[in-house]
Amino acid sequence: MSQQQLRSHLLNARASLSAAERDDAARQVGEHLRNLPELQQSCTLGSYFSVRAELPTHAINQHLMDAQHQLALPILHPILAGHLLFLQLSETTQWTHNKYGIPEPELNAQHIVPLQQMQVLLVPLVGFDRSGNRMGMGGGFYDRTLSAWHKGHIKNLLPIGLALDCQLVDELPKNPWDVPLPMVITPAKTWDFRS
Ligand SMILES: Nc1ncnc2c1ncn2[C@@H]1O[C@H](COP(=O)(O)OP(=O)(O)OP(=O)(O)O)[C@@H](O)[C@H]1O
Ligand SMILES: [Mg+2]
Protein backbone atom coordinates (compact mmCIF):
# COMPACT_ATOMS: atom_id res chain seq x y z
CA MET A 1 0.00 0.00 0.00
CA SER A 2 1.37 3.45 -0.87
CA GLN A 3 1.58 6.15 1.78
CA GLN A 4 -1.41 7.94 0.26
CA GLN A 5 -3.46 4.71 0.17
CA LEU A 6 -2.59 4.00 3.78
CA ARG A 7 -3.60 7.55 4.74
CA SER A 8 -7.01 7.23 3.07
CA HIS A 9 -7.51 3.76 4.57
CA LEU A 10 -6.84 5.19 8.05
CA LEU A 11 -9.06 8.22 7.42
CA ASN A 12 -11.91 5.89 6.40
CA ALA A 13 -11.46 3.76 9.52
CA ARG A 14 -11.65 6.88 11.67
CA ALA A 15 -14.71 8.21 9.86
CA SER A 16 -16.65 4.97 10.37
CA LEU A 17 -17.04 5.68 14.11
CA SER A 18 -20.21 7.39 15.30
CA ALA A 19 -20.12 10.79 17.00
CA ALA A 20 -21.10 9.11 20.28
CA GLU A 21 -18.23 6.60 19.96
CA ARG A 22 -15.80 9.44 19.31
CA ASP A 23 -17.06 11.42 22.33
CA ASP A 24 -16.72 8.32 24.46
CA ALA A 25 -13.18 7.80 23.18
CA ALA A 26 -12.35 11.43 24.00
CA ARG A 27 -13.60 10.95 27.56
CA GLN A 28 -11.26 8.00 28.04
CA VAL A 29 -8.30 9.76 26.43
CA GLY A 30 -8.96 12.82 28.61
CA GLU A 31 -8.89 10.63 31.71
CA HIS A 32 -5.53 9.03 30.75
CA LEU A 33 -4.18 12.50 30.03
CA ARG A 34 -5.27 13.92 33.39
CA ASN A 35 -3.56 10.98 35.15
CA LEU A 36 -0.15 11.74 33.63
CA PRO A 37 2.49 12.73 36.20
CA GLU A 38 3.42 15.66 33.91
CA LEU A 39 -0.05 17.18 34.35
CA GLN A 40 -0.32 17.00 38.13
CA GLN A 41 0.80 20.62 38.48
CA SER A 42 -0.40 23.57 36.49
CA CYS A 43 1.54 23.74 33.22
CA THR A 44 1.55 25.24 29.74
CA LEU A 45 0.24 22.97 27.01
CA GLY A 46 -0.08 23.25 23.29
CA SER A 47 -3.26 21.62 22.03
CA TYR A 48 -5.36 21.79 18.86
CA PHE A 49 -8.91 22.29 17.68
CA SER A 50 -10.16 18.92 16.37
CA VAL A 51 -11.90 18.81 13.00
CA ARG A 52 -13.87 16.24 11.02
CA ALA A 53 -13.49 12.69 12.37
CA GLU A 54 -10.51 13.43 14.64
CA LEU A 55 -10.71 12.47 18.27
CA PRO A 56 -12.75 15.42 19.65
CA THR A 57 -10.54 17.75 21.69
CA HIS A 58 -13.14 20.34 22.74
CA ALA A 59 -14.02 18.75 26.08
CA ILE A 60 -10.39 17.75 26.69
CA ASN A 61 -9.24 21.35 26.14
CA GLN A 62 -12.00 22.68 28.41
CA HIS A 63 -11.06 20.24 31.17
CA LEU A 64 -7.41 21.25 30.93
CA MET A 65 -8.29 24.93 31.27
CA ASP A 66 -10.66 24.20 34.17
CA ALA A 67 -7.71 22.44 35.85
CA GLN A 68 -5.77 25.74 35.66
CA HIS A 69 -3.42 24.71 32.86
CA GLN A 70 -2.44 27.38 30.32
CA LEU A 71 -3.53 26.35 26.84
CA ALA A 72 -2.12 27.46 23.48
CA LEU A 73 -3.65 26.60 20.10
CA PRO A 74 -1.96 26.55 16.69
CA ILE A 75 -2.44 29.01 13.86
CA LEU A 76 -0.87 28.88 10.41
CA HIS A 77 2.27 31.02 10.47
CA PRO A 78 1.49 34.30 8.66
CA ILE A 79 4.93 34.43 6.99
CA LEU A 80 6.64 31.05 7.15
CA ALA A 81 4.53 28.74 4.97
CA GLY A 82 4.13 25.24 6.41
CA HIS A 83 4.89 26.34 9.97
CA LEU A 84 2.64 26.80 13.00
CA LEU A 85 2.52 29.41 15.76
CA PHE A 86 0.87 28.68 19.10
CA LEU A 87 -1.29 31.35 20.74
CA GLN A 88 -2.32 31.45 24.37
CA LEU A 89 -6.09 31.19 24.93
CA SER A 90 -8.01 33.49 27.26
CA GLU A 91 -11.63 34.54 27.85
CA THR A 92 -11.10 37.38 25.37
CA THR A 93 -9.67 35.26 22.53
CA GLN A 94 -11.07 36.34 19.17
CA TRP A 95 -11.59 33.50 16.70
CA THR A 96 -11.21 33.29 12.98
CA HIS A 97 -10.92 30.49 10.38
CA ASN A 98 -7.76 29.61 8.46
CA LYS A 99 -7.61 28.66 4.79
CA TYR A 100 -8.43 25.02 5.65
CA GLY A 101 -11.61 26.16 7.45
CA ILE A 102 -10.10 25.29 10.85
CA PRO A 103 -10.96 27.68 13.70
CA GLU A 104 -7.93 29.48 15.11
CA PRO A 105 -7.28 32.35 17.55
CA GLU A 106 -6.67 35.69 15.84
CA LEU A 107 -3.00 36.57 15.56
CA ASN A 108 -1.79 38.73 18.43
CA ALA A 109 2.00 38.83 18.85
CA GLN A 110 1.65 39.20 22.62
CA HIS A 111 -0.13 35.85 22.84
CA ILE A 112 2.54 33.77 21.08
CA VAL A 113 3.76 30.84 23.20
CA PRO A 114 7.09 29.40 22.00
CA LEU A 115 7.56 25.64 22.28
CA GLN A 116 10.33 26.31 24.80
CA GLN A 117 7.68 27.51 27.25
CA MET A 118 5.48 24.40 26.96
CA GLN A 119 5.73 21.25 29.02
CA VAL A 120 3.32 19.27 26.83
CA LEU A 121 2.28 19.50 23.17
CA LEU A 122 -0.81 17.54 22.11
CA VAL A 123 -0.44 16.41 18.51
CA PRO A 124 -3.14 15.28 16.07
CA LEU A 125 -2.44 12.27 13.85
CA VAL A 126 -3.96 10.07 11.18
CA GLY A 127 -1.98 6.97 12.12
CA PHE A 128 0.75 5.79 14.49
CA ASP A 129 2.69 2.55 14.85
CA ARG A 130 4.18 0.46 17.67
CA SER A 131 7.40 2.48 17.61
CA GLY A 132 5.69 5.89 17.82
CA ASN A 133 6.08 6.70 14.13
CA ARG A 134 3.39 9.14 13.10
CA MET A 135 1.44 9.92 9.95
CA GLY A 136 -0.43 13.22 9.73
CA MET A 137 -2.60 14.84 7.09
CA GLY A 138 0.40 15.24 4.80
CA GLY A 139 1.24 18.92 5.31
CA GLY A 140 4.38 18.35 7.35
CA PHE A 141 3.20 20.97 9.88
CA TYR A 142 3.94 18.91 12.97
CA ASP A 143 7.17 17.48 11.55
CA ARG A 144 8.38 21.06 11.14
CA THR A 145 7.03 22.08 14.56
CA LEU A 146 8.79 19.17 16.27
CA SER A 147 12.04 19.21 14.31
CA ALA A 148 13.93 21.41 16.86
CA TRP A 149 12.61 19.23 19.69
CA HIS A 150 13.70 16.08 17.79
CA LYS A 151 17.23 17.52 17.45
CA GLY A 152 17.36 18.01 21.22
CA HIS A 153 17.12 21.82 21.11
CA ILE A 154 13.96 21.97 23.20
CA LYS A 155 14.29 20.37 26.59
CA ASN A 156 11.43 19.59 28.95
CA LEU A 157 8.78 19.27 26.24
CA LEU A 158 6.71 16.11 25.99
CA PRO A 159 4.84 15.79 22.67
CA ILE A 160 1.81 13.50 23.03
CA GLY A 161 -0.23 12.18 20.13
CA LEU A 162 -3.98 11.81 20.72
CA ALA A 163 -5.72 9.08 18.76
CA LEU A 164 -8.53 6.58 18.44
CA ASP A 165 -7.53 2.91 18.77
CA CYS A 166 -8.34 2.30 15.09
CA GLN A 167 -5.48 4.65 14.17
CA LEU A 168 -2.83 2.12 15.28
CA VAL A 169 -1.03 0.18 12.53
CA ASP A 170 1.79 -2.37 12.88
CA GLU A 171 4.34 -0.37 10.97
CA LEU A 172 4.31 2.98 9.19
CA PRO A 173 6.67 3.91 6.37
CA LYS A 174 9.16 6.47 7.68
CA ASN A 175 10.44 9.48 5.76
CA PRO A 176 13.68 11.23 6.78
CA TRP A 177 11.77 14.34 7.99
CA ASP A 178 9.18 12.43 10.06
CA VAL A 179 9.42 12.98 13.80
CA PRO A 180 8.32 9.96 15.87
CA LEU A 181 6.27 10.66 19.00
CA PRO A 182 7.49 9.72 22.50
CA MET A 183 3.91 9.08 23.62
CA VAL A 184 0.46 8.43 22.16
CA ILE A 185 -2.76 8.24 24.18
CA THR A 186 -5.74 6.23 22.91
CA PRO A 187 -8.86 5.09 24.81
CA ALA A 188 -7.26 1.66 25.39
CA LYS A 189 -3.92 2.84 26.76
CA THR A 190 -1.12 5.33 27.12
CA TRP A 191 1.64 4.25 24.73
CA ASP A 192 4.99 5.32 26.14
CA PHE A 193 7.73 4.89 23.53
CA ARG A 194 10.49 6.54 25.58
CA SER A 195 12.01 3.46 27.19
N1 LIG B 1 11.30 19.74 8.93
C1 LIG B 1 10.90 19.87 7.66
N2 LIG B 1 11.49 20.75 6.85
C2 LIG B 1 11.09 20.89 5.58
N3 LIG B 1 10.08 20.20 5.02
C3 LIG B 1 9.44 19.32 5.77
C4 LIG B 1 9.81 19.10 7.13
N4 LIG B 1 8.98 18.18 7.65
C5 LIG B 1 8.15 17.82 6.64
N5 LIG B 1 8.41 18.49 5.53
C6 LIG B 1 7.72 18.34 4.23
O1 LIG B 1 6.33 18.26 4.47
C7 LIG B 1 5.73 17.39 3.51
C8 LIG B 1 4.68 16.52 4.17
O2 LIG B 1 5.26 15.67 5.15
P1 LIG B 1 4.48 14.39 5.69
O3 LIG B 1 3.88 13.63 4.57
O4 LIG B 1 5.39 13.66 6.63
O5 LIG B 1 3.30 15.10 6.51
P2 LIG B 1 2.57 14.62 7.84
O6 LIG B 1 3.54 14.24 8.88
O7 LIG B 1 1.59 13.58 7.45
O8 LIG B 1 1.81 15.96 8.17
P3 LIG B 1 1.64 16.82 9.50
O9 LIG B 1 2.97 16.87 10.21
O10 LIG B 1 1.18 18.17 9.01
O11 LIG B 1 0.59 16.16 10.30
C9 LIG B 1 6.86 16.56 2.90
O12 LIG B 1 6.88 16.81 1.53
C10 LIG B 1 8.13 17.06 3.55
O13 LIG B 1 9.14 17.30 2.62
MG1 LIG C 1 5.32 13.24 8.65
Automatic annotation (TrEMBL):
Its EC number is 6.3.3.2. Its cofactor is Mg(2+). The keyword Transcription regulation does not apply. One of its GO terms (molecular function) is metal ion binding. GO terms for biological process: folic acid-containing compound biosynthetic process; tetrahydrofolate interconversion. It catalyses: (6S)-5-formyl-5,6,7,8-tetrahydrofolate + ATP = (6R)-5,10-methenyltetrahydrofolate + ADP + phosphate. Keywords: ATP-binding, Ligase, Magnesium, Metal-binding, Nucleotide-binding. The keyword Ubl conjugation does not apply. ATP binds at residues 134-142. It comes from the Bacteria. Substrate binds at residue 54. NCBIfam families: MTHFS_bact (TIGR02727). Belongs to the 5-formyltetrahydrofolate cyclo-ligase family. PANTHER family: 5-FORMYLTETRAHYDROFOLATE CYCLO-LIGASE, ATPASE INHIBITOR/5-FORMYLTETRAHYDROFOLATE CYCLO-LIGASE. This is 5-formyltetrahydrofolate cyclo-ligase.
